[in-house]
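Example S7 (structure tokens).
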């Protein structure tokens, strides 16, 4: 008997893609989350033109 584990992503925070030059708020937020033990990654949502800080969740 095999078990199946589905992984989904949970968006922790959204940031507009138009941040000022040299400003990386999504990366800074993700780094802070990782420092607290959350495996946070930054991905780009092309549809909404936003950076999403996401973590994988097991369902």
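Recovered sequence:
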């Amino acid at each position: 008997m095999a078990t199946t584990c589905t992984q989904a992503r949970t968006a922790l925070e959204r940031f507009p893609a138009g941040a000022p030059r040299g400003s990386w708020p999504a990366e800074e937020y993700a780094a802070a989350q990782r420092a607290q033990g959350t495996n946070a990654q930054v991905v780009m949502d092309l549809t909404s033109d936003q950076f999403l800080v996401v973590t994988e969740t097991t369902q």
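Notes on this example. The mean pLDDT is 87.
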